Amino acid sequence: LHRRTAAGDDIYFLFNHAGTPFAAPVDFRAAGRRPELWDALSGKRAPAPFYETHGAHTRIPLSLDANASVFVVFPAAAQSGAGVPQTSKSSPGPDPARPRAPDVPALPDGPSAQSRFGNLRYDGPDAPPAGVTQTSKSAPAPAFPPGAIFLNARYYQPDIAADAAADAGATAGHSAPRAPQSAFHNPQSALEGPWTLEFANKTLGAPDAITLEKLIPWNGHADDAIRHYSGTGIYRKTLRLPPDFPADAPPAVPAAPAAPAPSTAPAVPADAVPAAAAGTAGARRLILDLGQVADIAEVRLNGRPVATLWTPPRRADLTDFLRAGDNLLEIHVTNTWVNRLIGDERIPVPHGYQPKGTSKFTDGRLLELPAWMRAPGDAAAKNPRHTFSTWKHYDADSPLHPAGLLGPVKLAWFREVSADW
């Protein structure tokens, strides 16, 4: 989908409708301007780190998760910068005869710098000096390193150095070397449980709070009130950072009163904590991946809202919200009211709905207003159910919908994709 604004901006919208990730170079009918990536989920935008101009076209490598999307924008006033055209083994260098954007001069030959991005210009923070011709290690070259993700309009790759440092760390409260599955190398095990789960709606019969040793869907719980719960559930866990965590991290905000937290918090070993974790360019980023959620989640850290996640992939950058010591992670998950509607079908009501088989267009409609609605001041007239609907869509034996935080929840260090990955 392409639109050109009155100011001359070229805006392209790309959507990966496949059920599998997409990663490949994409050509756009625009040149001479530095492209930007706009992330509609976060509202953030950033210059595309890699691109190549071919006459009137610009080639950009893109990587999108299943059902993910991105805006690629060529601002009218954003001229192409002094990026470095990178060449693959099959191409000895920039072709002087090939049409080029007027502001991108042909670069002289020079010492090679290792890269895997083929014929693509890199304008990121780690770009090599002007005049360096980059040669790929192999051909054909993959567009992105394995495990790269797109978040907040930027591409990030797993930080192998941080993972290796975490392997050499210590478990929380122990001086022995960390087990192979450390909190930040393989954090899924650290964040599976226990979790404290509080049910925000106190009128549906669910307990105030429970402890989950592992994540399970609400509709699979043994408690009938939890199984049919509709509303918001608040998952809580404490993460522990070493005392020498960077002092320039954002100040803490008092968190809301929490249900009792587990006595042992997953720890981040000191040597795995980046020296510039508070948002500096090229610094490591601590990324939270919630896995599957039914249906929408709000992530908070130390009482501060981080992100609202309503579509996969449900990831959030926690880096700028961390502090030394204990950090309270809260995940507010809200489902639809379908499960409570199904549960209420077991409670008889005096008003009726049109039975099935009468008309496919009107089956299930409300036949008359209930007494408690006709006479709201009558204390004897009260809705016996928790919900009310003017249409009957479900029966008492209808299958319940998945609900809650399903996971797996992962936490890992990433670094912005650079030319020398």
Explain what the structure shows:
It is a single chain. The longest helix is centred in the middle third of the chain and has 8 residues, at 160-167. It contains five helices and 25 strands. Strand 4 and strand 5 form a beta hairpin. Helices cover 7% and strands 30% of the residues. The chain is globular and about 75 Å long.
Task: Quickly list its features.
single chain; 421 residues; mainly beta; six-stranded antiparallel sheet; globular
Runs in which pLDDT lies below 50 for 5 or more consecutive residues are 82-142, 166-189, 247-281
Q: What's the SSE pattern? A: EEEEEEEEEEEEEEHHEEHEEEEEEEHHEE
- For the biggest β-sheet, the strand order reads 3-7-6-11-9-12-10
Helix proportion: under 10%
- How far is it from the N-terminal to the C-terminal residue, by CA? 32 Å
Instruction: Summarize the main sheet.
Output: 7 strands, mixed
Count, helices: 5
Question: How do the strands and helices of this protein lay out in sequence?
Answer:
Elements: E1 2-4, E2 10-15, E3 22-28, E4 36-39, E5 44-47, E6 50-54, E7 57-64, E8 69-74, E9 84-87, E10 113-115, E11 121-122, E12 134-136, E13 149-151, E14 154-158, H1 160-167, H2 188-192, E15 195-199, E16 209-212, H3 224-227, E17 232-241, E18 284-289, E19 292-294, E20 296-301, E21 304-309, E22 315-317, E23 325-334, H4 338-344, H5 371-374, E24 404-407, E25 410-416
Parallel strand pairs: 9-12, 10-12
Antiparallel strand pairs: 1-2, 2-8, 3-7, 4-5, 4-8, 6-7, 6-11, 9-11, 13-14, 14-25, 15-16, 15-17, 17-23, 18-22, 18-25, 19-24, 20-21, 20-23
